[in-house]
Amino acid sequence: xxxxxxxxxxxxxxxxxxxxxxxxxARLVQGSVLDTALLEDLCTQHSYTAIYHLAAxxxxxxxxxxxxxxxxxxxxxxxxxxxxxxxxxxxRFVFTYSIAVYGAGQVxxxxxxxxxxxxxxxxxxxxxxxxxxxxxEMFGLAYTIxxxxxxxxxxxxxxxxxxxxxxxxMNQIMANQPLTIFGNGEQKRAFSYVDDVARPMVDCLxxxxxxxxxxNIGADQPYSVNELAQAVMHxxxxxxxxxxxxxxxxxxxxxWDQSKIAKFFPNLRPPTSLPDGLARMAAWAKKVGxxxxxxxxxxxxxxxxxxxxxxxxxxxx
Length: 317
Prior knowledge:
Elements: E1 9-12, E2 27-30, H1 36-46, E3 50-53, H2 60-63, H3 67-87, E4 92-96, H4 120-139, E5 143-147, E6 151-152, H5 165-174, E7 179-182, E8 188-190, E9 192-193, H6 194-203, E10 213-216, E11 222-224, H7 225-236, E12 242-245, E13 253-254, H8 259-264, H9 274-288, H10 307-313
Parallel strand pairs: 1-2, 3-4, 4-5, 5-10, 6-9, 7-12, 8-13
Antiparallel strand pairs: 8-11
Helix pairs in contact: 1-3, 3-4, 5-7, 5-9, 7-9
């Protein structure tokens, strides 16, 4: 966005981000999408052309056990942004979330596939999608929705224990810990390199036909988590043991068809291969080293919490 001459404000509550990731040319505001007064003040001051909404607590597996927290941050926070966009006549609202909306047994996933989210995270994100449709019909708010999944790459928070499996694996390797895999590791995912996702998101502002459209975006080649673990160890140049944990409640196979996005984005590049993307991220991760972030201490439901998480959270009980 900066390269194309836009003035950029970054709003982040810093629960999982780092100020040094933000380019000096962008304005960084530390705050939350739950702070409606702050949102109103920013929109009044700067008359934004577009709002890109990427803020979320995107720990799908954990969302079962933090339901109130999940809906506050992922649904109510989103509604606050939509209200601000309507009031200040923002020309485009770009929303990103996840193919968690599709649910199980629907691969390869198409934009036309009937949503059947199976966890509170996916439910909250689908609710925002429906709210955007309603806001367009009532107030004329133009929007574009991207559904990426398992995005990875440089600058990611590799210290997060509950999401972003590639970052978790790299952090565990640098800390000389075993790689932890829930279940037998045969669940399949497509892993999307960050540049492949970011560029079309910027391009959509110059493509009017992308308004009121939903796009799957990112890689379309699925890998099992076991295959991913071996690929990450190869990229990091280090072999460590693998520890299989009790299976958790999750969709086993999740990957998509992205033929639709190719029709709307004439300059779309082929997805970065997993080995190439991992090599780039690994080079960066080795420079920054292992990271550790705070434990999530707002668990609301303990019943059926995976044993490995319960051991971490037990100090709160």
